[in-house]
Amino acid sequence: MSLGFVKFGATTAAQLMSRSQMDVMNHAVRTQSMWWGSVPMGAPDTILGIRDKYNKDSSPKKVNLGVGAYRDDDGKPFVLPSVRKAEELIYQKCMNHEYAPIAGEVAFREACAKLAFGDCSQPIVDKTNATVQTLSGTGALRLGLDFINRYWQKKREVWLPNPTWFNHPQICDMLCLPYKKYRYYDPKTKGFDVNGACEDLCRAPEGSVILLHACAHNPTGVDPKKEEWECLSKIIKEKKLFPFFDMAYQGFATGSVDRDAQAVRIFVKDGHQVMLAQSFAKNMGLYGERVGALTVLCGDKCTADKVMSQLKVSIRTIYSNPAINGSRIVKEILTNAELKQQWLVDVKAMADRIITMRKMLREAIEGAGSKHKWNHITDQIGMFCYTGLTPAQVDRITKECHIYLTKDGRISVAGITTKNVAYVAESIHKVTSS
Questions:
Q1: Domain coordinates of the chain in residue numbers?
Q2: Which of 159, 165, 343, 374 is catalytic?
Q3: Can you give the residue ranges of the Aminotransferase class I/classII large domain (predicted)?
């Protein structure tokens, strides 16, 4: 009986072993989707989707006007001579790779603030600014909006221009931060809707956060004139609204870093305590270095110290310390007089190429016999241009001409060169004349 039991037990053990293995395998399969099976598929990135389609296109005529990065007249990525020189100087210093301070190096932060507000601006002189290094402009926006979400004592609501960079509402959504839109772009004039913007801002609740593009508005390329900025500043101050500037293109719009910062400086001069997100992706070509800054103007030194302390707490819990290479390049350029002068020449050269391409594109479209008005191409400024092409026309120009751009008709002027401008113009004329 005992032998039978052993035999039975051995058989049972084998059977159990087999079942156990099956259960483990089934459990492993189940656990792949047990916790995350309900996660919905995220929306694909529009710009990356355009790039992928462009890369798969075998046509020799193809043109990518969707990329949001500067290209030279050969359509190649461009490294600024001032950046190359800064890299050489940094290499010669044989610096270590220790952690940067949580808020970033002091010299870097001071240089960023001075570039934005001016060397002798009141906040700089009084040291009432809390400035920290961030992961480019996107990181500055996320950190700033997160700070607002946690500490803002007024109406916790962000007002975004319509349209705006797609990441603005996306960041708000991630933070569960409510937002509304104010009129900005006028499709009829293809320019700034100053009356609509003023009317909408006048009805914004006291304490609302107003997001403003400092220059080279993305995606429209439409900027308010100086007197219109002054009008907006007056309304925002009278209505007790809070201005948050996104300045991703300082120097890249007009070729002058001071002129491109005029909106921010008008608001500061009018007594606003602004929040400012800066990026050095475009104006120094440091896209992959992800280097930027966030500044909060606080009114007094004591408040600035407290705000800085909380920004550092946030940074510590997200990425602990900022990266050092990109900030070293920026600091080297902005604190070396000779190198800074070279950079100002470099950034103006980029801006001038964009401005030249706008003129050539407009002239070529008009020269092709178009009956439409195209003055908006040269009236707008910066890397992007709202062409006015409809989604149907965008589909046509992509399918028939192999020219890639976003559905709303936005093009990156940096993708236009002296070699393809005639073809782009002829293609635009083709889809808009029939």
A1: 46-78+351-432, 99-335
A2: 165
A3: 61-428
